[in-house]
């Protein structure tokens, strides 16, 4: 079994039968088409059915074409005339139209096949992406680097999940993180913005031919085949049962010894935001202190913490300046255009956070059958009401790779 | 009683609005007393996950950890807390509230784009599946919470209207011109 990339569709078997809307339509004299289209689009625009064409043309056996036009969306009440607004009724009366009920597709087609099916009911418009690769969401030549990024994420994951945010245009690591829901014995590594930057690209450019050099964490290997309850996204409610053996005072101001919501994707997003604030500090002007003083606002310890890290990272940002294009215009809006690699499929909290943060693509290696939001249990990315949508892919990891070192060492 | 707490949540939302943030605010109540509050800080932090609920939760986690409470004790505390928030928690926050095990949520207006308490998903219902699946054995079950919407919804919506009239300074281009804030 080789490395493989499988797209996780946003909706399973979208059946056209289940997603139609009833409309009232009428046959019209082709000479009237222009007049009626104009009048109806004013009197009764098809607000939520913009993909549906107002007029249907059908060619009859005699070669004569027959035109029908949508009057309005049907509410199902009988007789249909009671559904007409006053203006619409006027049009119906003036041209002596006789309405009938028709079905149209409720949603815009996402593929050519779907569109062809829709048009059998009533014509819709369909705008395929110009490039086939855009439809697929990745390009063939990207595959090696995609697999490479996933390897990096897997190596980062120790006891829990791991997340790596990548700018695919430069293959630069924007941020990385591991689960921080509970305190691990090992010191947290790679969870800060500065550390993420320390090895920018080098780990990604490292040769991948020799997988034997990769040291996979033992805990990861042993739990690979059973469900791993250490993964925050798989067992989000598990934090309550944990007890820290020795309860110490807070490690540092504003830090948490443990935190039920600090799943790897959430921490990675926070690190990316910190990088953004550090690299593009000028736009902090949008935060103005509350001059009136708001006694109820007790959340202001956050900026204080930032201030500390900001000064620390100033050196960092000056060393970054060789990129030279860090003007406001090049500042990304959140994670627009970025990819995130997760070892485990995210829960609904993390998947929604990825929507909020405008990721372009989400890659995960192992599905989450307990709370998975991107195929495991839910398909959040297929939820049409959301204001942003990303593509989701599962990276299939070869057994030989995930079974790791011992297998490898024999081979080498 | 609910409206008194919601008024305080609305105060938080106004604070967000004054700071050019999407105006959502919340308070967390324990034993009839407000013990934490939060306002949306997504623009200031450039972190789109810093919703009011997340801010208010972090205040308590920080406080309780500094008091030396462990996970079990913190879970017990959250189980006695109610949240009042001006807008229906989104799918992310609804999951987060379920994860920390909040007792009850009262919200103002519904969130028909990404509401997680009935509008788009119903995460407040907790474990509704007949889950004797592979998970059942080890994983803790999803926790539900009681959820009531529509409390002072008009006030919450009015704040959103204010915000969108002044324009979101952090929205991706192209967007409507931002009206400069009056001092």
From TrEMBL, chain A:
Belongs to the cytidine and deoxycytidylate deaminase family. ADAT3 subfamily. It comes from the Eukaryota. Keywords: tRNA processing. One of its GO terms (biological process) is tRNA processing. The keyword tRNA processing applies. Residues 280-327 are annotated as: Disordered. PANTHER family: CYTOSINE DEAMINASE FAMILY MEMBER, INACTIVE TRNA-SPECIFIC ADENOSINE DEAMINASE-LIKE PROTEIN 3-RELATED. Residues 280-295 have a biased composition (Polar residues). InterPro entries: CMP_dCMP_dom, Cytidine_deaminase-like. Residues 302-315 have a biased composition (Basic and acidic residues). GO terms for cellular component: cytoplasm; nucleus. GO terms for molecular function: catalytic activity. This is CMP/dCMP-type deaminase domain-containing protein. Residues 256-393 form the CMP/dCMP-type deaminase domain.
UniProtKB/TrEMBL annotation, chain B:
It comes from the Eukaryota. The keyword Hydrolase applies. GO terms for molecular function: hydrolase activity; zinc ion binding. The keyword RNA-binding does not apply. Residues 1-119 form the CMP/dCMP-type deaminase domain. It holds the Pfam family dCMP_cyt_deam_1. Keywords: Hydrolase, Metal-binding, Zinc. This is CMP/dCMP-type deaminase domain-containing protein.
